[in-house]
Amino acid sequence: MENPNTTYAPTAHGSGGTVHSLLDDATADTPDGRCLHDSAGEVTYRRMAELSHGFADWLTARGAARGDRLLVQLPSRRELVAMVYGASRLGVILVPLNPAMKEYHLRSVIEDAEPSLIIGDGPTTEVLGRAAGLPVHDLATVWPHVEEAAGRPAPPPLGISADDTAFLVYTSGSTAAPKAVVCPHAQVTFASRAIQEVLGYRPDDVVFCRFPISWDYGLYKVLLACLGRSQLVLDGGESDLVLLRRMRETGATVVPIVPSLATMIGTLARRDTQDPPPVRMFTNTGAALPAHAVTALREAFPGVQVVRQFGQTECKRVSIMPPDQENERPQSVGLPLPGTTVLILDAEGRSLPAGETGEIVAVGPHVMPGYWRRPELSARTFRRDPGTGALRLHTGDYGRLDEDGYLYFEGRRDDMFKRKGIRMSTVEIEAAAMDIPGVRTATALPPTDTRDLVLFAETELPPHTVLKELAERLEPAKVPALCRVLDELPLSLHGKNARQVLTEMIDGEGR
C-alpha cells in the first residue's frame, strides 16, 4: 500500500540531472496522479516512487553499487518501470533486454556487459547467467522484498552524478552480436526534455505503448510520460485482435507506432463499428510511414496528428516534425531537436549547402559518449568537431536539409548504391512500392555480387503487377529485377521489417 507520510521534493536537477529526478519531480507535483496502467491495474506517481525506493533497497541488500551493471530480461510491466528508477537512485547501470532475445545473442550480451546480477523469468536467462557464475533472480523472489521496503520512509538521496551512466541499451543484432550504446543520465534527460518540448505530452494524456522497454522507443515513453505527468499504459501482451478495444478502454490519447503497427491499427479500424478511441496523436519512428497508412489513421481518428520522427539510439532523437506542421513538407522528418544541430557533410567532412545530399551528423547534448567496450567503433561513429571540440554523431544515414532547416532522410549508407550507373536508395524504391494500391509494406534489398536488386512486397497482387506499377513510378534503372510477394513480411523484435531474414531467404534460393 502507499505510504501517505512519504513526501517528495523536487531535486536539485529539476532541469536535467538524473533519471530518477524526473520521477521525484513528477511525484512532488502530482503525487496522486496516475503514473502507469498495466495488467494488474493502476499505479500513482507516489506509489511508483515508493516502489523504486523499495527496489533500490533490494539492490543495496544484494551489495549492488554505483557503476555495477544490472541485466534485466522481463516483460514491460510496473516492476520493470520501478527498476528503471530504482537502479538510477543507486547509480546502478540498467541493462534492459527483450524477453524474446534468443540464447545466441543473450550469451554475447552477458559476456559483454559483465553484469553483477541478473533478474529474469526465463529458463535460458537462468542457465546462461549461472553458467557465467552470476547470481540470477526471478521476479517472484525479488518483488515481495520490494513491496515490503516500499512502505518505509525514503532514505537520503545519494550523490549520483548526471554524468554517470544510466543505461546500456543494446541495439538489435542481425548476424553480428548486439552492441550497447552508453547512455548517461545527462544525455537521457536532455533528450527526454527536448522531445517533450516538441511533442507536449499533457497531464490528461494516456500514452498507449506496445513496445518493450528494452527498446529505447519504449524506454523513453516511460520518461516522456513522467515529464508530461501523463499515464503510461503498458500493453504488450494482449492479442492484436483486441488492440482497439484496449485503446478504447484505457482512453488512449497518444500512441507511439512503427509502420507495421500503424498498418494494423488502420486495418482494424476499418472493420470496427464503434466510436474510435480518443487518440489525438500518433508518433512514428523506425521507418517512414506509407501514405496509405497515414490516410487510414486520419480517416479512422478524426483530427488526429501523425508525427514523423527520425533518430538513433546513439542520440535518441535527431529530428521531429512539429505536430502543428504535420501536413507540411510531407517528405521531411522535421526539425532538429531544440538545443541541437544537424549537419550534412560530404565524404571529406565538409558542410554541404541546403539541398545537397550527404551524411547526417547530429551535434548537441543528446549525443551519447560511445559504445560500451567498442573503442574503434566509437571512434568512427562519435567524433570531435575539429573547430569546437563538440562531440558529433556520424549517423551513417544520408539526407539533406532544405533552406528552412528541415531534414529529409534518404537512406543508410548500406541502403545507397549504384545500379546501371545511377545512384539510388532502397528507401525511395520502398516508398514507390508502398504507393501502389494494395501493397501494405515493402522491403528492397540492394544488389550484391551474386544477385540483382530485389523487392519483397506484402500484398495480394502478383509480382509482375507490382513491377509494372513500379515502372510507372521510377526510372527504369530503379525498377527491381525481381519481386517476391508474401502474405506477411517478417518483423524484428521491434516491429521493423526483418531485412536480414529476407536476405537469407533470397540468397538461399540461389544455393
Automatic annotation (TrEMBL):
Chain spans, region Disordered: 1-26
Stretch forming the signal peptide: none
Domain AMP-dependent synthetase/ligase: 25-372
Protein name (Swiss-Prot/TrEMBL): AMP-binding protein
Lineage, opening ranks: Bacteria, Bacillati, Actinomycetota, Actinomycetes, Kitasatosporales
